[in-house]
Structures are given as C-alpha cells and as structure tokens.
Amino acid sequence: MRAVIAEDLALLRDGLVRLLTAHDFDVVEAVEDGPSVLGALIGHRPDVAVIDVRLPPTFTNEGLLAAIEARRQVPGLPILVLSQYVEPLYARELLSDGAGGVGYLLKDRVMDVGQFVGAVRQVAAGGTVMDPEVVSRLLAKRVRDEPLGRLTTREREVLALMAEGRSNAAVASNMVVSEKAISKHIANIFVKLDLAPSDDDNRRVMAVLAYLNS
Amino acid sequence: MAGAGAGTGRAVPPDTNAMSKDVSDRGSSAGAAGESGRVGRWIARLFRATAGFSGLSSDAPASSGWPWAAKWRVTSFGIFLGLAVTVVWAVTGAHYFWPGWIWFALALPLAFQGAIRRALRTNGRRALAMHAAVSLVVALAGIVIWLLSGHGYFWPIWPFLGLAIALAGHAWLVPMLPNNREQALRERVAVLTRTRRGALDVQAAEMQRLERDLHDGAQARLVSLGMSLGMADELLDIDPAEARRLLVDARIAAGDALADLRALVRGIHPPVLADRGLNGAIQALVLAVPIPVEATIDLPEARLALPVESAAYFAVAEALTNVVKHSEASTAWIQVHLADGKLSIVVGDDGIGGADPEQGTGLRGIERRLAAFDGTLRVSSPPGGPTLVTMEVPCEPSSQKTSPS
Ligand SMILES: Nc1ncnc2c1ncn2[C@@H]1O[C@H](COP(=O)(O)OP(=O)(O)OP(=O)(O)O)[C@@H](O)[C@H]1O
Ligand SMILES: [Mg+2]
Predict the structure, then answer these.
(1) Is the peptide bond before A132 cis (omega within 30 degrees of 0)?
(2) 8 Å CB contact between B22 and B37
(3) By CB distance 3.0 to 4.6 Å, which of A11, A122, B109, B245 could disulfide with A127?
(4) CATH top class, domain A134-212
C-alpha cells in the first residue's frame, strides 16, 4: 500500500516512516513542510496519507487545510490527520464532505502501534476514524440533548466507540460482549436517535458523527 | 514682587549664587571667597544643630532640582546677612528699624518658594492653588510693607480687593473649563499604575499555577514512566510477562503526561487561536456549548494584536462557561465586531440573570485582564434575565494574515 507522510519534526517523521514500512506500507514520499503537501498528495495519489496539522512555514493548521484541499480535488482521497491536540471544529471540517476515508487522531495514539496501524488501514479502506477525545467532547456537549438522554449507559458507550470508527466486531471485543448484543444496542440507538439504519459499518459511523456534529 | 517669586527656588541674588559655587569647589578658591565660604559652612552647621527651622532642608533634594547643600548655603547666607545688618543697626544707635526691609527682602523669596511648593503638592486644580498661594504671599507682603512704612492709612485693602476678585474669578471659571489636561494625565497614570499591577499579579499567579501543574502533572508522570521503563529493563530476562506489564504502564504514563501538557497549553495559548485567530477560536468555543449559540462575528481578515486576541478569547470562554454553569438559559448569543479601533464583544443569554462579578473570580479576572489593554467589562443581569456581558477593548488589526492558504 502506497503512503505519503507529512511531518516536520524529523524524529517523528522517521518514526512514522519506520513504523509504516515495518507494517508493509510503501512510503513513497515523506514531506516536511506545508507547501509540499498538496503537490505530494495530488502527484502520488497514495492509498493513504498521514498528515500533521501543524507544519512550517506558519506552524498553524496548513496540514489540515492541505488535506481538505486535496480531498476537494480528489474526493475521498484517504487521509489520516494527526495532531498534538484535537479540535472538534477541525473534525467537522474534515468530515464535512461526507466522503469517508478520513481520520483525525491525536499523535499520542501512535504509541499503541497495533491500533494506530489498524486506523491507517481503516482510513485506506475508506473508513472513518475519530479520536476518542473528539468523540467525548462532542458527547459532553450533548449532555442536555433529549434524544441522547434516552440512551442507556451501555448504549452511550457503544455510541462513543462507534463514533470513533470501530466496527461492530471491534466494539464487541472492546466491551467484552457478543457481536449480536452489540448489533441489538446499535439498532436501539438508531431508533432512539431517529437515524436511518444501515448494515454498513462506515455508513453507521458517519451517521453517528453527523448526528453528534449537528 | 510676584516676578521675584516666579522662579521658585531661584530668587537668589546672582552674587550669592556665584559664591555658593565657589564654596562648593573649595581648595581651588582662596582669599575672600574662601573666607566667606567658611563662615557660611559654620552657620550651616549651626543651623543643622537647631534643626527644624524650615521645610526647605527636609525635602529639598528632589522637589526643586536644587542641590541640597547649595540651598543650605544660600539660606544660611541670607540669615547671616540679616543678622549682620541688625547688628550694624544696633551699633549705630538703634533708631528707625531699617533692617526690617532687608529681612523682608530676604524672607520674600522663601515665602514664595514655600507657598508655591505647597501649591504644587495639591492634587487636581494646581493652577488655582498656585494662584491662591501667590495671592496670599502678595497680600502678606502688602501688610508687612504697610507695617514697616509706619502703618498709616491701610492702603493694602485695595490690592487685597483686586487679588480677591481675580482669585474669585479664577475659582468661578475653573469648573467651566474642560477637564484640564493635567488632571486627565493624573488619572491616566493612576489607572495605568493600577492595571499594570493587576496584569503583573495575574501573570505571576499564572506562572505559579503553571509551575505547580507541571510539577504535579507531566513531570511526575514522566518520572513514573522512567521508573516503569527502568524496572522493565531489569525484568526483561527474568520475568518477561511482568516486564511487558510495566511497558504498558509506561505507555499509559506517557499518554497521561501528553494529556496534561495539552491541557496546560490550552490554558496558555489555545492552539486553535494560534491557527485561526479570534474568529475561528470563538467558533470552536461555541461548538462546545451544549445550548444553541448564535454567533455573529464581524472581524477583518487581518489578525488582531496577539495579546488582545488572547484576552478576548479567554473572556469569551469564561462568559460562555458561565452561561453553561449558571444561567439555565435555553439559548445564548455572541456578537463580536471591530469598529473605530474598538473590539466589542457581547455574550448574552436568556437565562435566570443575577450575574454578579463580586460573587466569583471569573468575571473579575476578565475585568482585570482586559483592563491591562484599557478594556472594560460590563455586566447587565437583572433577576429573571437576560444576562448581557459586554466587553470592549481598544484594538487595531495587526498586519499578520489569518491563515496561509
Ligand atoms: N450568565 C449568567 N447567568 C446567571 N448568573 C451568572 C451568569 N454568569 C455569572 N453568574 C453569577 O455570577 C457569579 C459570578 O460569576 P464568576 O464567573 O465571576 O464566578 P463563578 O463562575 O462562580 O466562578 P469562577 O471563578 O469559576 O468563574 C456566579 O457565581 C453566578 O452566580
Ligand atoms: Mg465563572
């Protein structure tokens, strides 16, 4: 799988290259500043890109802006955006095209190598991955929401895991229950939140995120 | 007469001045000058012994720019002169007391100086105070002249009348003049002194909080991480399972340290503010509020001055936090615009009202922080609502652009 990396700190850039290479990714280019990102993305059209939000020369959010622009030009281009901090506003901007194949994670998540590589693969496959911190902040905002208030504690846990982009199977193993039980929870959640049911994992994730983001 | 006193401490005959200068660079001077200098010093010493004669010596150095020692010399020379002529008068038969005129001439500059210095010390209407002081000295001088010249017809009544009318006219006019510049500057200095101290206090407290947070948070976690790694290293061969558990601990500690640092950074300078400026940062704040917030933000493309941006951001954050915590509102709104070099922000809610900055630290903190930029905070929050928190800060857009593209 061909990957592009954009990260300005050499230490992290080399680490990411090593990590992805070790997991059978072919890193075709690793850029270190904002202006090169868009060119690399459009030029290589990689199977997945891992991009840091903050890049030189302005050290603000040009990585994010480049990612959004690249996906505007190449809809659905799979991009995982990494950052030292996450901001629900940016999540909303990344998700706004509704195309999937997008992820937004704290850099901390790299420490759990297995899960991180899983997230990269999931984005490459057109899935959506959202950092637990974004999800918990979206949920915290909705504490007073009527429909969300109708969910049981269990259902809220399932909702949170789903919003992070986990598949049914992953949610089930995380909560140590059967997949069938999870399916039932999900069905209940969709009814209570008045969302259109779907069999497709990614569709469900996007529906939930869209709901939380509204 | 008034002319003589105009120059505060300078109403000294030029020759006296020259002499006191000679005295000051002793050694080089000789003869008569050196002689009188010695006498002057002697009298000065005498005077110091019988201290308390005049206010001149006590606070002289700073106020009029005159060297303390020179003033002493001049004063003591005056007194010496007065005593000398009095002795001459006594020796020559003690008839009409003509030395009175000399004493008078010597005392007059002192009187002017004292009066003017007093007047300068008053707060506020200094010009009027000065006028009154000079009038008083002139009037007293008139009486003394009348006394010395054999008190016949009390002619000083006429200058008194004139002075009194002029002073009354001045006093009557003063309140009508626009607030005078001096007063305005004085108030400005008072405000700056207070707000500067406030800003420094806030900053010092912030620093202390940061230090404590780092110490108890990230630093402690990194220590624990290091310990876990060290122990894992030792156990790697003996007990791989336990070593693995320690590695997991270490990873968790690293994650926690990062989370602590993130929270800290958010409190110092929120990254979204750095990225997007006030406009984007307020939108990000609004996103986190659980009730609908209607945000009307009218800001130029260019970034605002960084400190103002930051103060405004934290002000809005606190106001929105208060809405969530206290207001029980169902909707809130926020209006931000920049016009005529002034940034104004209104955060309103339709909640229960009754907000009172005296009841907490949040609103007071905003007030102090804004005051450092000549900004103000107003709270209108009648019982039953609505609550309006209005903040205004003088501000110009800086040249920095909002974001690269
Ligand atoms: N929007 C509001 N609606 C109703 N009451 C409010 C509102 N904002 C503030 N108040 C009241 O005014 C008081 C002062 O607010 P302030 O923000 O200064 O302190 P606080 O929020 O209680 O504590 P903190 O120091 O954590 O901010 C609050 O205790 C609250 O009772
Ligand atoms: Mg408060």
Answers:
(1) no
(2) yes
(3) A122
(4) mainly alpha
- Report the candidate in B367, B369, B327, B368 with the shortest Cα–Cα distance to residue B348: B327
Confidence at B45, pLDDT banded by 50, 70, 90: low
Domain coordinates of chain A in residue numbers? 2-130, 134-212
**Span between the terminal Cα atoms of chain B, in Å:** 76
pLDDT tens digit string along B370-404? 998 899 999 999 999 899 999 999 987 765 544 44
Residue B149, sorted as left (phi over 0), alpha (psi -120 to 50) or beta, turns out to be alpha
Other C-beta atoms closer than 10 Å to the C-beta of A99 total 17
The ipTM assigned to this model is 0.87
Determine which of A8, A81, A89 to mutate to test the interface with B (most B C-beta atoms within 10 Å). A89
Contact predicate B319/B347, CB 8 Å: yes
Give the tokens for residue B245: 């558990």
Q: Is A122 on the interface with B (CB under 8 A)?
A: no
Residue B60: pLDDT band with limits 50, 70, 90 = very low
Task: State the DSSP string of B113-174.
Answer: HHHHHHHHHSSS-HHHHHHHHHHHHHHHHHHHHHHHTT--S-TTHHHHHHHHHHHHHHHHHG
For residues B333 and B319, what is the distance between their CA atoms, to the nearest angstrom?
11
pTM attached to this predicted model: 0.69
Interface of B with A in 228-267 (CB under 8 A): 251, 254-255, 258-259, 262, 265-266
